[in-house]
Amino acid sequence: MAATPDMLTARVTGRRTVATGVVELELKSPNGESLPSFEPGAHIDVHLDGGLVRQYSLANFQPDPDRYTIAIGLADASRGGSRYVHDSVAVGDEFQIGLPRNSFPLDPQAAGYVFVAGGIGITPILSMVRWCEMARKPWRLLYTARSRQRAAYAEELVALGGGRVRLHFDDETGQMADLAGFLARLRRDEHVYCCGPEPLMQVVATQTAAHPADCVHFERFSAAEAPAAGGNRPFRVRLKSSGRELQIDAGSSILDALEQAGIDHPFACREGLCRSCEAEVCSGLPDHRDYVLSDAEKASNRMMMVCVSRARDDCLELNL
Fold it and tell me: What's the chain look like in SS3?
């Protein structure tokens, strides 16, 4: 596949195991050029063999990067991406990657940063911590994992942060981390960033319910369980460019209907996690079910993720 303005060719120049079940890949341009810059919290789409597209957070941070670093945890129920990386990707391999995109941006004006990471959720947080160190910003971190052996970058984080880093390992304590205690001294002007398993994020959301909503940020690596198809209602989508209308059944998505109609629309995750399939809403009210739009963006109803979101009205018109 040839590179396009939205895609780059990347070569694997380093591979190492950074924890049990976690492989780190170092990616560089094959011609040695600098790579596009990115802000902490950004991710890239990685196009693997067999048409697989997966999103991986960038764990490194530098203003003018000559490399990207991603870490891939082997999922218990891999859909092919993590298993392929662990079993088949080697130094010297090349593949296409998308330009960095950021659905989990760090607010550079915050007075301080409180990070909560679970398992492989440490990857975007590590990029943020590295930025904080460069910018001399105050930060602290609670990092929880099933075991010490599964905690990628734990030693590096302790070396960076010392007493600002609290590690918790389930197998050593027999219980969940004390999130309430860690967040109890949260100041109103501090921003909270959390990435990890859904149960962890639900607890953090509960513990920060009284904190200003625009100061609490989450990123998911997998979607929560989708509602049963019986809870969905059918609706129609009108395509502005042609006036064509598509019927969206209870058990299918807008993206499904576009594909069935032979309409090529970008996508990657199919879970409302990556923003690849974003479409502009011309009329009608979307039923937002994604995890990437901010509350303000959802309230504006000007865009939607067609892989998961639906309609509150009988018909939506999209700028497609």
Answer: CCCCCCEEEEEEEEEEEEECCEEEEEEECCCCCCCCCCCCCCEEEEECHHHCEEEEECCCCCCCCCCEEEEEECCCCCCCHHHHHHHHCCCCCEEEEECCECCCCCCCCCCEEEEEEEHHHHHHHHHHHHHHHHHCCCEEEEEEECCHHHCCCHHHHHHHHHHHEEEEEHHHHCCCCCHHHHHCCCCCCEEEEEECCHHHHHHHHHHCCCCCHHHEEEECCCCCCCCCHHHCCCEEEEECCCCCEEEECCCCCHHHHHHHCCCCCCCCCCCCCCCCCEEEEEECCEECCCCCCCHHHHHHCCEEECCCCEECCCEEEECC
Enumerate the domain spans of the chain.
7-98, 112-219, 229-318
| pLDDT above 60 for 313 | yes
Query: Which CATH architecture fits 112-219?
Result: 3-Layer(aba) Sandwich (3.40)
pLDDT at position 299, please? 86
pTM of the full structure: 0.78
Q: 229-318: what fold? A: Ubiquitin-like (UB roll) (3.10.20)
- Residue 228: its pLDDT value, please? 47
pLDDT digits (tens, 9 = 90+) for 116-174: 999 999 999 999 999 999 999 999 999 999 999 999 999 999 999 989 999 999 999 88
Domain 7-98 fold:
Elongation Factor Tu (Ef-tu); domain 3 (2.40.30)
pLDDT tens, position by position, 74-105 = 987 656 788 899 999 999 999 999 999 998 99
